[in-house]
Amino acid sequence: MKVAENVVVVIDYTLKDNDGSVIDSSEGAGPLAYLHGAGNIIPGLEDALLGKEAGDEVQASIEPANAYGERHEQLKQEVPRELFSGVDSVEVGMQFQSETEQGPVLVTVVEVKEDTVTVDGNHPLAGVHLNFDVTIREVREATQEELEHGHVHGEGGHHH
Ligand code: ZN
After folding, report:
1. Distance in Å, CA 142 to ligand 1 centroid
2. pLDDT for 99
3. What is the value of pTM for the model shown?
4. Cβ-proximal residues to 28 (8 Å cutoff; 6+ apart), any chain
5. Which CATH code of 2.40.10.330, 2.60.120.260, 3.40.50.150, 2.60.120.400 fits the domain covering 73-120?
6. DSSP class of 143
7. In angstroms, what is the span from residue 152 Cα to ligand 1's centroid?
8. Chain Cα centroid distance, residue 101
9. How far is the C-alpha of 52 from the C-alpha of 49, rounded, in Å?
């Protein structure tokens, strides 16, 4: 069976940036199961896996536009530290939900000064070129329930 719309695909993967540093890997966490065509994974990786089958090894080099998007420097903002008055200690790497005119945005603290905090609303992988090494373990039909939920149930998927 080949990877196509609405089938369940189970993969092992390693994700590296252009410097060869490992960003993410299924090693340890176990294989990832996703529903093809449901937006569970980035579009560039879906494109690379389309038509493949169990046992195939796939290498994919994906531009930011087909991954987590380009970085937008205007999403990086220096704000008064008072805004974090409810937080004991603001540290680099902390994430907060920020209310904006465009709705809630997840921002990451990138710099802390005495009076200001710089937050970045870009996805941490925005602007990053992604290099995937993927091994397809299984390709199977989705159940009716999985199609209705838009994700995979069981091992490597959702448990609820
Ligand atoms: Zn579900």
Report:
1. 12
2. 82
3. 0.82
4. none
5. 2.40.10.330
6. P
7. 7
8. 24
9. 6
